## 1
Amino acid sequence: MASSESRGADALRIVGTPQTKIDAVSKVTGRTLFADDLKLPRMLFAKILRSPHPHARLTRIDVSKALEAPGVKAIITGADLPIPFGILPVSQDEHVLAPDQVRFVGDPVAAVAALTEDQALVATKLIEVDYELLDTIKSINDGLTKTTPLIHDYGDKDNIHKLINLEFGDVEEGFEEADHVREDVFFFEGNTHLPIEQHASLADWGADGKLTLWSSTQTPHYLHRAASKVLELSPAHLRVIACPNGGGFGGKSDPFSHEIAVCKLSMLTGRPVKISLTREEVFYCHRGRHPVLMSFKTGVDKNGRIKGMHLRTALDGGGYGSYGVASTYYTGALQTVTYEMERYKFQGARVFTNKVPCGPKRGHGTVQPRFGQEVQLDKIAVDLKLDPAEMRLQNLVKPDSTTANWLYVSTIGLGQCIEKVVDGSDWKTRYGKLPYGKGLGIACSSYLSGAGLPIYWNKMPHSGVQLKCDRGGGVTVFCGSTDIGQGSDSVLAYIVAEVLGLELVDIRVVTADTDLTPVDLGSYSSRVTLHTGNAAIEASEKIRDMIAQAVGDKLEVPAERIRLADRRAFDVEDPEVGVSFAEAIQITESSVGTVGSLGSYTPPRSPGRYRGAGVGPSAAYSYSAAIAEVDVDPETGFVSVPKIWIGHDIGRSLNPIAVMGQVEGGVYMGLGETLMEEMAYRENRNLMHRIPSMLDYKSPTTHEMSDVVTYLIEDPDPNGPFGAKEAGQGPLLPIMPAVANAVYDAVGVRVDEIPITPEKVLEAIRKKEQGKEGRYGPKEFPDVPWPEPAQVLPPWEGGDGRETDPPARKVK
Amino acid sequence: MLRLPEFEFLEPSSLEEAVKMHESATEEVAYVAGGTDLFPNMKRRHQEPQTVISLGAIEELSTAPEEVEIDRRRFVTIGANVSLTDVSGNQLVQTLCPALAKAAESVSTPALKNMGTIGGNLCLDTRCNYYNQSFEWRRSIDFCMKKDGDICWVAPNSPRCWAVNSSDTAPVMIALGADFVLMGRGGEQIVPAAEFYNDDGIAYLNKGPSDILTQIRVPITPGSGATYLKLRRRGSFDFPVLGVAVWIRWNNKIVDDARIVLGAVASYPRIIPEAATAIIGTDLDDDSIEAAAAAAFRPSKPMDNTDLGLAWRKQMTKVYVRRALHELRAQTD
């Protein structure tokens, strides 16, 4: 993006200036149409019958009584859609409706379409299903040890879905060189996205033999692929439109049963069919944060420099694969990008259990180990009597460097993030010195600005943007990206208006429609600003250059002197000489024909070449540092968080207000996970989700929300559009460890488990009072049948990014 | 979202008409005031009335709080249909019964307090982790005895239901010694708040099915003080996992009389006389406060029927009783 980079910050009119999101007024006035708002003539309503059992074989299903119920137009079961699907090519393990086995309470079994929602609901209760109950796999330990019954007939071993073993240098050697070695075990309970909008979908089998599906999805392109596969319908005859999402956070990133079920029901009835899930069903869609048990063994020198780290993670995956293989890799991917680490070993295991399937939630897979890593670093700083902020500052990864696991870090603004929050919170005079019950804690993190690889292997661009210029001076942007509230539609408008010298109101944005818009892979992995932004710059600059040539010819001014600004094209050396943007388009169209352009973006190839190297690389990493101030009530164990200071390395904010909104939203969600949110299950009776409602699944209210002081660190990244990196996920990551570390500063106990509930805090305080270790948390990491490790030498040990062949095992 | 079942909606304009409608119903029937308890419950099929009788059009139920003298005693009277917002925001209530204002303010959220009534909160259906779930959820785990089943999942060997009384205002009414006025087929009846509740998760109210709670009478006792402390996960939305209501009558800085009532630890607001005994006759010194806290701790028996763990909730009884008593002592300084 050399040409965008060369444009100095002073010359920018829109980028970097606070702007209203282009859809804000329509949202706050209730005019935005979400999927559940859609209505079509003759529309039917669908309901799904779900399994009441966590694990069972289906022995009989009889829909005959239900078919005779009033208003019922069609019923489908597993036999109607036998082709499996799944978001990852390696985990095609889901069916729209279970053909023979159900794997969690809530697994879809049948779907009914009827004239009214009530009639559909009544009919689901008339469907007769016989189940042969199977034993349940309830926990990580069950998944690792029980060989029967099998939840799936694939996976790395019995009920173990995935096993990973990667060695980047000899960590044992690192521990020997270290002045101090610690081993800590942590647990991070699962939690869910809790978007305000419940999932809804509408399918319409048109008279032209084509199907249209509107859905609250973050990934219309992947849904398009999955639905066309299962429905055996050419993708050319299926149009997927992602409606504006009322929140996603990763929970609308998988193709879901209900989305494909309404397609089939529409094809069978020839009528539009809509489904709107209940909140309880949204809990059963889930695909949220994996429960992760983890062990960190870390050796450091006396300054806290990491000589070696050995991380083991065990993930409770729930009943299906979902993104789980990627999630497992992510639990070990980003440990290396914040602090220099000389050697690194990662072992990860994901097991199937008879619970709601887990998948990606904001920070996908990196949140849980970041908690463990940052809490352990805090313990190390205490052990070494170092200031935890200073210790982190001294050991930062350098810009333009490659980590032990072969991730290339272009820019890192983490040092400035730390300095800002240290100053803002008065850390140096307050940390360790506050009265009992009050504390400060610091933690840092990093996240991807877009995954380096797509979900299915291909060499096509990750994002495409098409521009169409109107003779009246308007520009329409077409892009497959999906606005889930993060502002991706606005980002397209900002960039196109910036490059073409237009106002935001001149730009029309058409997104997330597989018939109309070029492919964008979806709103996940914090990829949209960077990927679509770069594609939009490319497309806009093509238009700019076409205009410059045509208008320059017309005005007899060299093309390189033509500038676009203030809705005009003019001679930069004599600004009076020029034409309006509309005239510029007309001149260009007269000269070269219809004025339009295409831009696309593929992130740079990562240097890692080993198996598993595809998870972790990104065009740019964002960084965050947070300091939390807590009040701990030592009699109840309640933790409140009055204030959080957070610095976020955004590269460059395209819209600082929107970035701050994302940062504050991340803090809010992070606090919820830290203090209360959990996907809790009953194990005594059936394996049931304990609390599938918004009243009982506790998420913070405004009372629990902290004040937030946000510092945006602007250090443009050469790979980002105008230097921008992500803000949607990264700022959530430091919150859990910052609060945990602050609790220690406040009352001297460690809660090595998320969420940090009053019960756990009080138990740790009581233990400490009794002279025992003031800690609440897991004690040990289970035995896992790890495969032989893949050995990859770090760059500084002469590696080339590939596995050494044959494995270079040192003989001890 | 969850769908309401179909039902017939009646809107009588007098108490007599309402009672008559209730008496003449042949199938399941329910009164509704604010609807914030009944309608969500109906969506989850906890109650399945074919007929719902609204009390909303009965004017006398909406009488705002006023100070009146009845039988030479002074009371604050409140119509049962007064919203929780109007109770907590009422100046008379705030001045004369601040503990009630505080309890009403702590219920749920502002939006629900605008709809929910004081009478509704006093008649709140008992709650349980195994009961306040959708029909499908309850079917999956197998129905409990409170609705559609025959077992109590909280205590499977128990012959009774252990659903928990989750009203914030009920413990305060008992602590303050309030009377409830009921209207039923036998005419008007005055019931002390303490006698209105049963220790049973299913038959939790001591009233006839067609009886309507019409008015609350809170006595004004000179020289008394009261408070309500609510324990819950969040500062809004949540039902109590423990409520502590304390009323004290002072005589020259000595506790002359007292009532200590725990909410959300049993199927009824639980009066703890031994805790009151521990402070009566004292000047509420630290030792007597500790004795009262210990006395309240012993009979406090939370079960697996609310948010948060029961062992922790039991421990919190002591902390919260202690805090409530310290607060009242501080008021006298």
## 2
Amino acid sequence: MTSTDHGGDVRLSGISKTYGSFTAVHPLDLTVPQGSFFALLGASGCGKTTTLRMIAGLEEPSSGTVFLGDQEVTNLPPYKRPVNTVFQSYALFPHLDIFENVAFGLRRRGIKSVKKQVEDMLELVQLGEQARKKPHQLSGGQQQRVAVARALINTPRVLLLDEPLGALDLKLRRQMQLELKRIQTEVGITFVHVTHDQEEAMTMADTVAVMNAGRVEQLGSPADLYENPHTTFVANFLGTSNLIEAEVDARSGDEIVLRAGGGKLLLPEARCSAPTRTGGKVLVGVRPEKISLTHADDAGDIPAGRNRITGKIAATSFIGVSTQYVIDSPVCPEFEVYVQNIDRDARLAPGAEVVLHWNPAHTFGLDADQDIEAGVGTVDEEAAV
Amino acid sequence: MAFVNSIGRWLKSHFVVIAGLFTLGYLLLPNVVVTVFSFNKPKGRFNYAWQQFSTDAWRDPCGVADLCGSLSLSLRIAFWATIGATVLGTMIAFALVRYRFRARGAVNSLIFLPMAMPEVVMAASLLTLFLNLGAQLGFWTILIAHVMFCLSFVVVAVKARVMSMDPRLEEAARDLYAGPVQTFVRVTLPIVAPGIAAGALLAFALSFDDFIITNFTAGSTVTFPMFVWGSAQRGTPVQINVIGTAMFLIAVLFVLTGMVIGNRRNRQKSA
């Protein structure tokens, strides 16, 4: 049961799940390397929990195989898989005290002397004092730690976490994110974490798979996903993106020259995930914090070689660390710009004519055949709680 | 005036307690009468008027012919009816909550039929059924009838409990290396147990003092309720009150023990 070299790899190949005519998960290939912290990120109903449950054995895949290391577990019942789950509502046994909850897995495997192990595990999650209490006597954060301890004590090859922090308030959630990350580094077990909270996925995971409508949209490190999204869903779901429709004009070296609303924009070819025929359409994206804002009167001071767009400030909001501007521009009616409050230009008030400019290296290009609004607003209502 | 006012205020602030005591008195009065008259020494055969204090009946509870025989029969029937109804009812409850099968809706409502049907009607039909089958009326026919009418009560009690149980708990158990049997014994059963216990207690009480259905299906067999009814025609022995009081005391004792155990457990937990 202990983790060996590649014993903690999770390999899903062609795995899918259909309920009648509804496809929860489309055939999916995914490899989670041993010892990594992997996040499945997506809005509710995207198939991430189903995928997790198929790894746990709680859901039978309609097709495909599940491997743990070299062992195929596709047809093994959950109690025969060296995998443990931290459930969304914790699912602590209400009739057992904390000690017995944590000892449950060991006892079921016929291990007699559990006392020392359970006490050590409760110490690890800082609940040594609460061993004889019943679950309902603990706070949400404590229950969550019991759920983690109850799963971890079995030293599974893979620990599955199903929205484990969803029921906690924001402050506690931040604390538990760091705590879980610490535990994962300490025990070195592969963690597969399901969440709808993009911030949570980005802070905790080494690798994030963004899921949408039963498919993995994109897989990569948090920074990679954020800086170089390949679909509008990823661009909008992870943070905020400004997307502009543009037409391919020409190529110059590694860069593509695009035309948008009369102006020209440069896009590094390597950062474009769409086919680029001359005359074809491309969605140009840029993150709001990459953009500088200059009053139209000072437009002459902007260095050459930067992408530029003109517009008029529609609204501003002061956030403290930054100021967020909404710019009405001919190419995009609601262009978002976040500016650090270093030296604030008093002229940048609603109604002012401005020039937006950014380093072309921060531009990314997406296929224009997608829904430009995909993934917008699906995160924030829950993440902002 | 001030005096009246203060009484009014006192009444107002203690209204709930006073109402509660009245209700309790109303509920307990019959039991008190039964208990008091178990210490009576009646002049004739009827124990309806208080004569003088005596513990004769308590010292010789089986002193009346056939009383203890009928009591033991009633207890045996109640015991087996409880077992039968609880096992079957628990399984039905699980089936109704956990599985989707054809006619599930129909079963769900038909299970309440014995509760809704007038007992006399049911008793008469059962008698017809047994006679047509050529069954020998007695212990077994009574038992079959009792299991039948206790069943719906057990199903209702257990179903409520199973429905309120988080299905994730069983998933968690399976995830933690418990096979199907272990999951049921270690997680499902303990969590549903209060519902099963409530159903069983209800079944026992219903079976023990059932008169109507028993009377129809008993043939020449006499259960305790039938004995009490029969003797009431000719005279009521004090021993009936003794048995009644004893049953009441045993029930109270059970409840108190349960409460004490529960309290001690709670105190240990919070300590």
